[in-house]
Design goal:
The structure holds 3 protein chains of 3 kinds.
Chain A: H1 2-26, H2 37-61, H3 67-95
Helix pairs in contact in A: 2-3
Chain B: H1 3-32, E1 34-37, H2 39-45, E2 51-58, E3 64-66, E4 69-75, E5 82-88, E6 100-108, E7 111-114, E8 120-121
Parallel strand pairs in B: 1-2, 5-7
Antiparallel strand pairs in B: 2-4, 2-6, 3-4, 4-5, 6-7, 6-8
Chain C: H1 2-29, H2 32-61, H3 68-73, H4 80-85, H5 91-112, H6 118-142, H7 167-195, H8 200-231, H9 242-267, H10 271-293, H11 309-329, H12 346-368, H13 370-378, E1 382-383, H14 386-406, H15 417-440, H16 448-479, H17 483-493, H18 495-519, E2 522-528, E3 533-536, E4 539-550, E5 563-573, E6 576-581, E7 584-587, H19 596-602, E8 607-609, E9 611-614, E10 618-625, H20 631-643, H21 649-662, E11 667-675, H22 677-695, H23 700-703, H24 711-720
Antiparallel strand pairs in C: 2-11, 3-4, 4-5, 5-6, 5-7, 7-8, 9-10, 10-11
The chains are: A mainly alpha, B alpha+beta, C alpha+beta.
């Protein structure tokens, strides 16, 4: 019984070592090209901005915003969205 | 009033309200609290008309029920002074001689009366993911 | 087998240590393979702890009494279902459950963020492994679930009968999932501060985890309340007990966070506030875990295991110090980008909501820890009771419900007063209508707080109804669909908003249930003999006849009791039969030989089995405390003790049961008629439904990544969204 337990424990240790050590064996010092924090950040900001624009639209259509308020807010949001899209473009063309 | 001053005013008003409410809270907690006493402390300090939280162990052999009233004595955890009291109300399942209890009492004359439904029995000393206490506050 | 379990714990400790080192090295040096390895250490931890948990679970199922925890909390006569759940009824087992759930949820969170937030995730990995390591160390050094005794005792003590209820299976894992899920936003919050990245990407990730934590914690709290009400003998669902409060506090700050996060997302404001909330929620969750296991609050749940108090205090102190340091040192990067546009805006309603929620949390925190506070300041320990809690939480709850009705009809950024008046008209009319009805039918009476809550709930109903109606109308105008289809499409395309509205509705329903069941309850406690009856509210309850059941196999609740004494109750209203109730009290065996051969069969913890007729408009609740101490019955026990050996002791119990049926002594009954209790559970279900709608990933047509190369395409994309 004690032998069986020791065997299982050893197997466990082995499996853990393999799983945990895999990245270390695979990529020795290779830089991770897929990691692009600025682009992730801009894409998240873009999605959030789209959502804001839709929210403002829904607010206006369900009668919470007056026309003037809506147009002002919508224009502002779209300008902010365009700014984000511009930044994204610059980033992707830089990578391309 | 320019926007920045408006903001400062709002902030000051909000903070003052918070401080005021917090003070009310703190004050009432100290005045509304029932002091927790052991039987020996209770015998010494209890004044009639005030509520106290009595904590101690139920004395073996002291538990008697007559109709809706349960009579039992509570003793210091380390033994010693025991205080007899009469209690009306729901008795929690874990209640028995030897268990630790908390009951809100008032001194009436020369005896102690337990407040209705205020009896709490601590779960046995072994850890359990025990449910909320058998606290009756109906 | 126990050796394997303990070896797993040691391996887990090693993996935690390695993972912390690898993640930190990886993120500081930029060597991604080490961060990756650190993340896999979390996966490995989950695997190891799964093995450990299985070892323990198997020990319980196989009745391996060599394991101390099995011997202490299980027995051959404990039913299978409860033996499986007994794993987490002990200090050691529950620590293992906590650590295991933490590793599982952390693995999921890190798997979901494996392609983004690399630097933040690396720090978060280190912090989560730190928590894991802490709990595993507690098990290795203080409370080992795999400790054994040789030779193994032949029989165990058995699961405490108070815990032999089905909810016992679900409540702790659900609650612990809530607690452990709260540590994930904490870790990602600290990670973001350490990596100096508190931005849109982080917000997206942390919202999901916080929502999951909020959902599980909320379910855990509701399940606990339901357990207390339907299965414990006191008939209440909330007692402002320290343990209940400990789980409610992180839920309140979590709710505040979910709202104020939206403000940060839209306006870049409240960054310091949000980060503080996230850190506070995690810390409160750890404090909640700690409260149950230490002796610090002497009043109610002073369990053993006082040795665990010190490590926890150290952990919490470290969390508080670390959080404070991080927020203060990063305050430049946490500056607000904008200011509040107008007081009449959804942002400012959310701010108000945050203040109320944090205020509630503070009240509960103060009241819960008051014994310690008073001891520190006055030298005497004193505690505050439910009336004090109620005095402050009820008004705050009223304001909260009201705000949850105002928020949906206010626009983001700013709104004109005229617009606001127009939108608040219908909800206000609903509230007024409710008030008129309540006053007119005399229901209101002197229950002003309950009436106020009903009116606030009517307000919320009006507000949410108006939102759904208007939204559907807009959708129909745009797409020409039939109303039901339009409604579904509306919700599908605006999940967060409408899911949130459903949650608000659920909360309003829940509070109506709470208000009604607290203020309009009728209760009665008295002794009855068979044939006698009593009035409770509008109902008449008659004690028809006693019941007595014997042996573990046949007890009504299948909980393994040796003897069960109860009653048959007939409930009628205005002469019409409503229901028949069968409350009983179960008596269990104990190991105390001093009680005698017969006495020990029933000397264990007695447990009340509540009988209830639950309905949509009211619950009729009953509990019985049979007088087993009656002289006639005790005489039988004593005679049995003197004359019967243990193997024949059941004969005496059969005689006792017969005697009870023939000459039942007066039994103490507790009856409660509470209106609308069912609404509490229904409200909870609605909240869960709304939460699921809100977190469900949006259909791909909305999230389709628009490959943008020109502004024109962008403008078209925006119009289509």
């Amino acid at each position: 019984m004690g032998l069986l337990i020791a065997l299982i424990a050893l197997v466990l240790i082995g499996v853990v070592a393999v799983i945990v050590g895999a990245p270390l064996r695979r990529a020795r010092g290779a830089r991770d090209v897929a990691f692009a924090p600025e682009r992730d950040e801009l894409e998240a900001a873009r999605e959030a901005k789209y959502r804001e624009i839709r929210d403002a639209q829904l607010d206006y259509r369900t009668g919470k915003l007056s026309r003037e308020d809506y147009e002002a807010i919508d224009a502002q949001l779209r300008a902010e969205a365009i700014a984000i899209l511009d930044q994204l473009e610059r980033l992707t063309s830089k990578d391309a | 009033m320019n926007p920045s001053r408006k903001r400062t005013v709002r902030l000051v008003v909000a903070l003052s309200t918070a401080v005021l409410l917090a003070s009310a809270l703190v004050y009432t907690s100290f005045s509304a609290a029932s002091p927790a006493l052991t039987p020996s402390e209770l015998v010494r300090q209890a004044q009639p008309g005030r509520s106290y939280q009595l904590t101690g162990t139920v004395v073996a052999g002291s538990v008697h029920r007559s109709g809706a009233v349960l009579d039992f004595s509570v003793q210091d955890r380390a033994g010693g002074t025991s205080v007899p009291l009469s209690y009306t109300g729901t008795v929690p399942d874990p209640f028995r001689a030897g268990r630790e209890v908390i009951v809100t009492v008032q001194k009436q004359g020369s005896s102690f009366v337990g407040e209705r439904n205020s009896l709490i029995t601590k779960c046995p000393s072994k850890y359990t993911t025990a449910p909320p206490s058998e606290n009756q506050n109906v | 087998m126990a050796g394997l379990g303990f070896a797993c714990l040691l391996l887990a400790l090693a993996v935690c240590a390695y993972g912390i080192g690898a993640s930190l090295y990886g993120v500081r040096s930029g060597r991604v393979e080490f961060s990756e390895s650190g993340r896999r250490a979390v996966y490995a931890l989950a695997g190891i702890l799964t093995v450990a948990f299985l070892v323990l679970e198997l020990a319980f199922l196989r009745n391996d009494f060599a394991f101390n925890t099995v011997a202490d909390t299980s027995s051959r006569t404990t039913p299978l279902l409860y033996r499986a759940a007994a794993v987490w009824s002990s200090q050691e087992g529950s620590l293992l459950l906590w650590a295991w759930l933490l590793s599982l949820w952390s693995s999921l969170a890190l798997f979901l963020t494996r392609k983004r937030l690399r630097d933040v995730a690396a720090y978060a990995t280190a912090i989560l492994l730190g928590f894991g390591g802490f709990f595993v160390s507690l098990m290795v050094f203080y409370a080992n679930p795999f400790a054994t005794t040789h030779p193994a005792p032949p029989e165990g003590v058995g699961l405490d009968p108070l815990l032999r209820f089905p909810t016992m299976m679900i409540h702790p894992p659900m609650l612990y999932s809530g607690y452990t899920l709260c540590t994930i936003p904490l870790a990602f919050g600290m990670g973001a501060l350490l990596a100096r990245r508190v931005d849109a990407d982080w917000i997206k990730a942390i919202r999901r985890f916080s929502f999951a934590a909020w959902l599980f914690l909320g379910c855990g709290i509701l399940l606990g309340a339901r357990w207390s009400y339907s299965e414990l003998g006191w008939g209440g669902y909330w007692g402002w007990d320290a343990v209940e409060n400990a789980s409610l506090m992180p839920w309140l700050t979590g709710t505040a966070f979910l709202h104020s996060l939206m403000i940060q997302e839209k306006r870049g404001m409240l960054k310091v506030w949000n980060v503080s909330l996230v850190l506070a929620t995690g810390t409160l969750a750890i404090m909640g875990t700690f409260l149950v296991r230490s002796g610090i609050l002497n009043s109610i749940h002073a369990f053993g295991g006082a040795t665990l108090g010190v490590p926890f205090v150290v952990l919490i102190a470290a969390l508080l110090a670390g959080s404070t340091y991080l927020v203060v040192s990063r305050r430049e990067m946490l500056r607000s980008e904008h200011r509040l546009d107008s007081l009449l805006s959804r942002e400012s309603i959310f701010l108000a909501n945050n203040l109320v929620l944090v205020g509630l949390c503070f009240v509960i925190l103060w009241g819960t820890y008051f014994p310690l506070i008073s001891e520190a300041f006055t030298g005497h320990e004193a505690s505050v009771g439910p009336p004090w809690f109620d005095r402050y939480t009820v008004p705050l709850a009223l304001i909260l419900v009201l705000l949850s009705g105002i928020g949906p009809v206010i626009a983001w950024r700013r709104m004109t007063l005229a617009s606001a008046r127009r939108n608040l008209l219908i909800p206000s009319c609903c509230a007024l209508l409710a008030l008129v009805v309540l006053l007119g039918t005399g229901v209101a009476g002197d229950k002003s707080l309950a009436t106020a809550m009903f009116c606030c709930a009517a307000f919320v109903l009006g507000s949410i109804g108006q939102e759904f109606f208007r939204g559907t109308r807009v959708r129909r105008a745009l797409a020409g669909e039939a109303a039901p289809l339009a409604l579904v499409a509306l919700v599908r395309r605006n999940r967060r908003r409408y899911g949130g509205y459903v949650v608000h509705l659920g909360i309003a329903v829940l509070f109506v249930g709470v208000a009604a069941s607290s203020s309009f309850q009728h209760a009665s406690e008295l002794g009855l003999s068979p044939g006698q009856s009593t009035r409770v509210g509008a109902y008449t309850v008659r004690y028809v006849r006693p019941t007595a059941t014997l042996t573990p196999k046949y007890d009504a609740a299948h909980t393994g009791s040796t003897l069960s004494l109860g009653a048959v109750l007939d409930v009628t209203k205005s002469g019409h039969h409503v229901s028949t109730l069968y409350p009983s009290e179960g008596f269990y065996a104990s190991e105390e030989a001093s009680q005698g051969s017969v006495g020990s069969l029933i000397a264990g913890q007695p447990v009340s089995h509540v009988a209830m007729d639950a309905g949509i408009t009211r619950d009729v609740w009953s509990a019985i405390a049979p007088d087993i101490e009656a002289p006639a019955l005790q005489r039988i026990v004593q005679i049995g003790n003197k004359t019967l050996p243990p193997e024949d002791a059941l004969v005496a119990l059969a005689a006792l049961a017969r005697a009870y049926l023939q000459h039942p002594p007066v039994a103490q009954f507790h009856f409660i008629v509470s209106p609308l209790v069912m609404w509490i559970w229904l409200g909870g279900l609605i909240v869960v439904g709304g939460a699921l709608i809100a977190i469900w990933p949006a259909p791909s047509v909305v999230r389709r990544r628009v490959a943008v190369r020109s502004r024109v395409r962008a403008a078209r994309g925006l119009a289509r969204a």
